[in-house]
């Protein structure tokens, strides 16, 4: 692939047929303002210096890579390396995007951050940045998710953020996005909507990607330093798709490197209870961009389902829809059951408790390792840690009872 | 983004624009009434829409229930959720338009988020709306610069198309909305979502003035309007006033008779 056709150069608003900006007129000025501010920041070395400094002294960048040989034995003996975004401050890759956008909000002069959150990781990261920059913070979280991720709700409140449980629609992540957009429409003069994934209207998919692509840029060099070669495959879980695009992006032009995104298949893609958007969806417009989505014949968004709140979203970022459409990346479904088995396996073989989201990537990697054979090297984005999931996993494996107490 | 196309039909030929013009000749201006299709059920929503016209509403705005209505406040959300739970389908909107048009003469616009139109097929949607006797579309999440397909389909069929203008829109974008809207320009009164508000934003008055400067001549103000007094005030500077949530609430609380009574009360605000 020559430099002139680099897949890394896509700058939006469209990625092939996907992307764009389908938003109420009331928000167009704010999106234009954001786009202009981002273009200025992107060209300003001082912005990059500040962001890199925060990465180093606050997030803990670069994150390390960890080889997991005992886990890899269950994957046909392939060599497996984890990119440890779980070790970041606040516990996931989400902090990278949040610090970038918060810095940008500061530049635009907006002192109020709003965010949507599913698992709570993005909400926690946003609450953290708001505290760090002395900004006001409101996080919208589906009521269903506030129940299954109570610990993260507490975390956000301790950080000084207001958490608003969303009771409209299906009361999950997609409805939290709707409420955040509604808030933004009403408060756009003072407020930056700190969208947490590579979805939404332009410039969000491009801007968020640029803030998370550091993951893959670091990892690519780390793998080369360790093994002397590029990995054969790179894997990540995909909900909206930010951690996946973050690790994929540096490898887009490395044709020998297979890219694999794992979507939440919930109870299975042969049931109605899943969140496998690219696997089972079709193109449509949701939350401001054209991408793949789960919808009925009338274009009504279907309910998604996953044991992981962070993947429980019926849409996906437009760049993933595009990478799938041109065959550059592969997207495959992983059931709740397979994800939880991989979760347990990483805990007991390597002493690492992953986020249930990231466990989908681990489960996919177990399958992929058996496919590629023992000579393969697979880089996995371990996008978050599982502290927030201890209650869910504890119940799943009967370590905790229904009330959350230790079982006898 | 996309090239902006020039409307192939002058504003004067639009059924919605002429209804608004007539209302401005006979009275202080037009009353546009919104109700969602299928709330609380299809038949009642049709009766309620007819009652609006019989009680003085000049233009009907029928909302197509959608799962993710980002511009709508709690009252309309609750109604559209109920409509969807009741099994309302997209094709019911065409049935509703047809049955309403058989009973009353006011032009009927559909208010719809973009994805349902996209999934139905933009051209097929336009053709079926024409067949049902509909006047056109209001598209809250489709702006002119993202709407090439719809501009083409509405030019081909002659359907009206109502784009939104917001207090935050630049003059350039106001011109874009004016030049490409047929029927009227939906003038967003305030920065916010649908729902009744006690005090109307001064933003509405200044936005209408800005739209006039850019050449806007059929301007209806919506969002937050719930009383005849507000309507009278708005019609002092705009060509029409749009009422939604207040009507939905009346229908929800007191059924068709209540929504008819409220429409009559609101219509009093259009007197000179």
If you had to describe this structure to a student in words, what would you say it looks like?
The complex is a heterodimer of chains A (408) and B (272). Chain A has 408 residues and is of the alpha/beta class. Chain A has 16 helices and 14 strands. Chain A has a six-stranded mixed β-sheet with strand order 3-4-14-9-10-13, with helices on both faces. In chain A, 63% of the residues are buried. The model of chain A has no long low-confidence stretch (mean pLDDT 95). By secondary structure, chain B is of the alpha/beta class. Chain B has a nine-stranded parallel β-sheet with strand order 5-4-3-2-1-9-8-7-6. In chain B, α2 (42-54) packs parallel to α11, α4 (90-103) packs parallel to α6 and α6 runs parallel beside α7. The longest helix of chain B is centred in the last third of the chain and has 23 residues, at 245-267. Chain B has a single domain (15-270), classed as Aldolase class I (TIM Barrel, Alpha-Beta Barrel), CATH 3.20.20. Helices cover 48% and strands 13% of the residues of chain B. Chain B has helices at 15-26, 42-54, 74-85, 90-103, 114-120, 122-132, 148-157, 171-180, 202-213, 228-234, 245-267; strands spanning 30-36, 59-63, 108-111, 136-138, 160-162, 164-165, 185-188, 219-222, 240-243. Chain B starts with 14 loop residues before the first helix and ends in a 5-residue tail after the last helix. The chains are: A alpha/beta (408), B alpha/beta (272). Chains A and B meet through α1, α8 and β11 of A and α3, α5 and β6 of B.
């Amino acid at each position: 692939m020559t430099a002139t056709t680099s897949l890394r150069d896509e700058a939006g608003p469209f990625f092939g047929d996907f992307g764009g900006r389908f938003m109420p007129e009331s928000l167009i000025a704010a999106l234009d303002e954001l786009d202009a501010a981002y273009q200025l920041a992107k060209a300003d070395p001082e912005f990059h210096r500040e962001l890199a400094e925060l990465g180093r002294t606050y997030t803990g960048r670069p994150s390390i890579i960890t080889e997991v040989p005992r886990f890899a034995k269950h994957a046909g003996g392939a060599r497996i390396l984890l990119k440890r975004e779980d070790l970041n401050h606040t516990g996931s890759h989400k902090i990278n995007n949040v610090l970038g956008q918060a810095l940008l909000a500061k530049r635009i002069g907006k002192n109020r951050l709003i965010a949507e959150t599913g698992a709570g990781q993005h909400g926690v990261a946003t609450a953290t940045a708001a505290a760090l920059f002395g900004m006001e913070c409101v996080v919208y979280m589906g009521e269903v998710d506030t129940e299954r991720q109570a610990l993260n709700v507490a975390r956000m409140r301790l950080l000084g953020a207001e958490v608003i449980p969303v009771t409209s629609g299906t009361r999950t992540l997609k409805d939290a996005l709707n409420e955040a957009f509604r808030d933004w429409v009403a408060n756009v003069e003072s407020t930056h909507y700190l969208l947490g994934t590579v979805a939404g209207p332009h410039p969000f998919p491009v801007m968020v990607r640029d803030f998370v692509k550091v993951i893959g840029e670091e990892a690519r060099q780390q793998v080369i330093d360790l093994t002397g070669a590029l990995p054969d495959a790179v894997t990540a879980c995909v909900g909206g798709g930010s951690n996946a695009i973050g690790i994929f992006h540096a490898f887009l032009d490395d044709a020998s490197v297979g890219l694999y995104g794992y979507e939440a298949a919930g109870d299975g893609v042969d049931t109605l209870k899943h969140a496998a958007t690219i696997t089972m969806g079709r193109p449509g417009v949701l939350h401001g961009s054209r991408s793949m989505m789960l919808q009925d014949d009338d274009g009504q968004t279907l309910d998604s389902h996953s044991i992981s709140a962070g993947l429980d979203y019926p849409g996906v970022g437009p760049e993933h829809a595009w990478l799938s459409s041109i065959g550059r990346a592969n997207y495959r479904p992983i059931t709740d059951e397979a994800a939880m088995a991989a979760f347990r396996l990483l805990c007991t073989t390597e002493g690492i408790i992953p986020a249930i989201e990231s466990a989908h990537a681990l489960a996919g990697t177990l399958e992929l390792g058996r496919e590629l054979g023992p000579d393969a090297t697979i880089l996995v984005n371990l996008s978050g840690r599982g502290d927030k999931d201890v209650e869910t996993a504890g119940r799943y494996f009967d370590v905790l009872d229904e009330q959350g107490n230790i079982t006898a | 983004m996309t090239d902006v196309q020039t409307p192939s039909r002058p504003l004067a030929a639009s059924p919605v624009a002429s209804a608004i013009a007539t209302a401005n000749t006979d009275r202080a201006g037009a009353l546009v009434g919104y109700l969602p299709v299928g709330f609380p059920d299809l038949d009642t929503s049709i009766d309620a829409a007819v009652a609006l016209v019989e009680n003085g509403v000049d233009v009907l705005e029928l909302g197509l229930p959608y799962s993710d209505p980002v511009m709508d406040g709690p009252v309309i959300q609750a109604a559209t959720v109920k409509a969807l739970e009741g099994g309302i389908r997209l094709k019911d909107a065409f049935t509703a338009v047809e049955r309403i048009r058989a009973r009353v003469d006011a032009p009927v616009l559909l208010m719809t988020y973009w994805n349902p139109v996209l999934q139905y097929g933009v051209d097929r949607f336009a053709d079926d709306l024409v067949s049902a006797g509909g006047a056109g579309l209001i598209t809250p999440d489709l702006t002119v610069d993202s709407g090439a397909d719809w501009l083409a389909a509405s030019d081909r069929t002659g359907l009206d198309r109502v784009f939104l203008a917001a207090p935050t829109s630049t003059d350039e974008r106001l011109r874009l909305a004016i030049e490409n809207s047929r029927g009227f320009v939906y003038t967003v009164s305030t920065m916010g979502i649908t729902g009744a508000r006690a005090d109307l934003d001064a933003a509405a008055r200044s936005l209408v003035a800005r739209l006039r400067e850019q050449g806007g001549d059929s301007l209806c103000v919506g969002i937050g309007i719930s009383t005849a007094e507000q309507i009278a005030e708005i019609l002092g500077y705009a060509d029409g006033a749009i009422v939604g949530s207040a009507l939905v609430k009346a229908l929800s609380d007191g059924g068709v008779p209540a929504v008819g009574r409220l429409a009559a009360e609101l219509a009093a605000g259009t007197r000179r």
